[in-house]
Design goal:
The complex is a heterodimer of chains A (119) and B (514).
Chain A (H helix, E strand, L loop, with lengths): L13 E5 L2 E5 L3 H5 L10 E3 L4 E6 L6 E2 L4 E7 L2 E6 L4 E6 L6 E2 L4 E7 L2 H4 L1
Chain B lengths: L2 H16 L4 H9 L5 H8 L6 E3 L22 E8 L2 E8 L10 H17 L3 E7 L8 H17 L5 E10 L4 H5 L2 E5 L4 E3 L3 H8 L5 H5 L1 H8 L4 E3 L2 H14 L36 H8 L6 E3 L7 E8 L2 E8 L10 H16 L4 E7 L6 H5 L2 H14 L4 E10 H6 L9 E4 L4 E3 L3 H8 L1 H6 L3 H16 L3 H5 L5 E2 L5 H11 L18
Parallel strand pairs in B: 3-4, 4-5, 5-6, 5-7, 6-8, 11-12, 12-13, 13-14, 13-15, 14-16
Antiparallel strand pairs in B: 1-2, 2-3, 9-10, 10-11
Helix pairs in contact in B: 4-5, 12-14, 16-18
The chains are: A mainly beta (119), B alpha/beta (514).
Amino acid sequence: MKSTDCEGKKIRCRSLCIDGTKYRTTLHKKYQKRGPWSKHEKNKVYSFIPGTILKVFVKEGQCVRKGDNLLILEAMKMQNLIKSPVEGIVKSLNVQGGTKVPKGKLMVELGFGQSANTS
Amino acid sequence: MGLKRKILELHKKREEVLKGGGDKAIEKQAAMGKMTARERIISLCDPDSFHEYDLFVEHEAKDFDMDKKVLHGDGVIIGTGTIYGAPVCLFAQDFTVAGGSLGMMHARKITKIMDHALKMKVPLIGINDSGGARIQEGVNSLAGYGEIFFRNTLSSGVIPQISVILGPCAGGAVYSPALTDFVFVVDKISKMFITGPEVIRTVLGEEISMEDLGGARVHSEITGNAHFFAKSEADCFDQIKKLISFIPWNNMKKATRFEPREPKPEYKISDIVPGDPRQPYDVRDVIKAIADDSDFFEIQELWASNMVIGFGRMNGETIGFVANQPLVLAGVLDVDSSDKAARFIRFCNAFNIPIITLVDLPGYLPGIDQEHAGVIRHGAKVLYAYSEATVAKMTVILRKAYGGGYIAMSSRHLRADFVFAWPTAEIAVMGPEGAANIIFRREIMESKDPDKTRKQKVKEYKEKFANPYVAAARGYVDSVIEPEETRKLLLHAIEVSGNKSVFLPNKKHGIPPF
């Protein structure tokens, strides 16, 4: 085989394992760039769309029930009311009114199980 | 007024309109390293073959002082011409006139030539260079886009449609190219996106240049929206002409036949593929060793390059080649490569182009990202495309053909007409390592030296199943052939497939896993 690609750059082969067999091959950019997977954690509220935080209803340390309003995330001219997915305590609040958030930002992190006692 | 004066008047009117957006705007266009719309059409068509229509079309917009503005030809050129003698319909947006913005009459000119192309059954080439919708014309401009998309869809599979992106092509405008068969882009000139850097900055606060967001490289390497990448406009026009030479005028015709030629002697088919199935090689060299004049015109070269697709000729006839590329990701099927192959197979089938498939793949790419990206649905596209294709289908299994990959790559079971296998072929339910680990799990676990037993069992499995003869014994492979015989047999297969006719169940249309 030729040791250069169409643009004359040297080709560096690597190993790729499929069904127990290791193949010598190259890995394209998109494959190399793929991100790691992580399990979805229910107590972490991420922005599902880029936008602006219009209003925050809770404070750090506050207890919330499942379904309580956390904040309003405005995106694409729509005001999205974000509710608490679990019962718990607001462990960290990473946004405030006016904050612009990208997609996938951790906005609120909730701690489990203390609300019943403290509220 | 005498005839002469009237003719003079026509000349004057023409001259005026042919100025487009005027000298200043033309200078600006040149400063951006871009040709004007008319220069582009002239470079693309055979000399003196282009004829323009609707030169004197004017817009009707009145709001926002538009009634005081003259926009020559309403910012688009339409007409007919020939490329290597093949008739084509063309439109080219003129960026020098109101930024090539699309108003109602601009769109009407485009749809007029699109209707013409569909009626006359000739290829349509659209050159896009436009700032987008003409905002002053409001919903009329949107209506224009919709009328274009509708015609793109109607023409799909009837006439070849080619989009050339030679400037910005943003917002809704990108959907016309997306609906066409081939998209050409030029480095540093083409820009395609739905929402531009401006919107991204205001909404996300993220800074990105047009080039990084939707430049020619992005669409050629990452998104797969573009099929052909060129370094310059001149290079791009050469590629378009070459493509036109490979494809038929419409779905009722065959592509023009060329003088048959032997492959170049430097491509020695027996020397390309290593015997060890774990070692890579460039499958394009195999195609070049088979195709006339070793001429292979690759499509989407930079995207999903673990699958190779493109046109070549055999005995002068256009052939679509589909091949796994062991040089990249070991040639696996994945989301992107399935998408790429399936669409190409459907193009070939729609336009009567026989398909040669070269198989050498270990299976599907394992990974969470692949599963979550829907590799099931995307992988199914390949099965669908091969199964519904009624053109002549020839398959050559060079080395590995394992599991689902074997079935997908134009196997006998999806009605390949001819299946050839080299003696190096390994047609099996999975690779020897994986298979031995499952079948002999207990024996391996219970043995004193599991590693040694595993190796022994893998060897046994390899000897028994990693060959083409098990499949040949069932007639799944028609013939086990020497690499040297490949071209001869393929030429023969194409020759005897000339009258192939297959009838599929009557239906409105199938429902491929889009």
